[in-house]
Amino acid sequence: MDESGASPDAALVRLLLQNDVSAFEKLYDKYSRIVYSLVLRIVQQSGPAEEVVQDVFLQLWRNSARYDASRGPFVPWLLTLARNRALDTLRLKSERQRRLENQTDELYSVVVAPQYEKDLDEKRRAERVRSLVGELNPQQKRAIELAYFQGLSHSEIAAQLKEPLGTVKSWIRNGLIRLREGLQATT
Amino acid sequence: MYEAYALGTLDASERAALDAHLATGCAECAKAVAEARWLVSQLAYTAPDAGPSDMLKGRLMQRVRSEVRSASPERSATPGIPDWLSAGIAALLLITFYSAWTAYRAKEVLRASNERVAALTQEQRDAARQEVAAMEEQLVAVRRENAILTDPSAVKIMLMPQKIQAPELVAMCGKRGVVLTGQKVPMPSANHVLQLWFIPKTPGAKPMPSMSLRPDSSGRLLMVVAHPPDGVGEIKALAITEEPEGGSPQPTSAIRWMGAMS
């Protein structure tokens, strides 16, 4: 926390408003790896993945005022933005359509950490989440991956896995409940 | 349901139903969705670890430095002040200046008209009196606008565009009325107007219709609502929709802008 009580990330984002390039570089160095990992997993090709990552960080640079630290932590907000951009690329959405939606859905998305969440470094956070998702049964894990990394709807997942819609909904719901409970238990 | 919404797995109709509910301002569901977004965002950590090339960082930093050098108009030139706040201040300064200028002009025209009336025939006097009456009406409107803007109890509300590409609108809302303004506002479709709605705090209560108009040819929008609903304190949000000419008793289209009373 800085003198004003803001998190270090929020303090860096605030400096972007003053065109502070070094603050931007610090945020890039800190989070470009997880953002790239996520985007590459979605778009599957390094070239387009780098384009999306560049786009995400330029959005951050140009629209940092849209991030309101009082409404949630920075990294989940950035990851939500990155996932949406990567899925847009996957779905070949037009640039115009993306611009329209970015102005509203993504930049204004509020992401709130639940009460049980505590600050963890990125490495420990990754280990914890991977371990918990690894403990899900294979169907739950597969359905959640199709939803998160491919952006498929319940119906699309049901069609792809050739399983009843209700079953797929249950897998995803129960899987996420188990993940949430696991995160609660380990914090 | 909230996790499925954040994950994006809901089908279109389910998503639309929850979107509509969230648009009513349900704080409990908004919080649940925001927490679900956090949970879903954690799934990013299951992606295999990989790093971008050094060239990407080089390109990005070069781009950012060049934007700083050229002082891109996309960024606020005022350090520490968010873009939306700068836009809000600019809009309020503009309407305050506009109001003062209009009041000055109206007074001048009024004085000149009175002088002309003294030297005219009866018929000409009647026509001139009508002109004076119109001017007096305009002056009253401007004074009302100034009264709302200078009311210390009035609160400023930013109305954010909802799934449209448009600038934010700024409203000053108080017991004396509401002044709403915007610049470069997209024109509604033919035979349609932008209509203001007051969203009551009472759960399930219907939005209350207010005035409707179109922006001028330069995209400037100025609405002055002299008689807001009784008990402005019972209003939780302002919203704008596009409605057929003449306005509607209830919204018939999606919300274009919305801003909560804080």
Characterise the protein shown here.
The complex is a heterodimer of chains A (187) and B (262). Helix content of chain A is 72%, strand content 0%. Chain A has helices spanning 8-16, 21-43, 46-62, 74-90, 95-106, 122-134, 138-150, 154-161, 165-186. Chain A has 187 residues and is an all-alpha fold. The model of chain A is unreliable at 1-5 and 102-108 (pLDDT under 50). With 262 residues, chain B is an alpha+beta fold. Chain B folds into 2 domains: 42-123, no CATH class; 155-260, Immunoglobulin-like, CATH 2.60.40. Chain B contains 6 helices and 8 strands; from the N terminus they run ααααααββββββββ. An 8-stranded antiparallel β-sheet of chain B has the order 5-4-7-8-1-2-3-6, covered by helices on one side. The radius of gyration of chain B is 24 Å and the shape is elongated.
Spell out the helices and strands of chain B N to C.
HHHHHHEEEEEEEE
Mean pLDDT of chain A: 83
Structural class of chain B: alpha+beta
Total count of helical runs of at least 4 residues of chain A: 9
Computed structural class of chain A: mainly alpha
* SS summary, helix count of chain B: 6
Using the CA coordinates, give the radius of gyration of chain A. 18 Å
Q: Beta-strand percentage of chain A?
A: under 5%
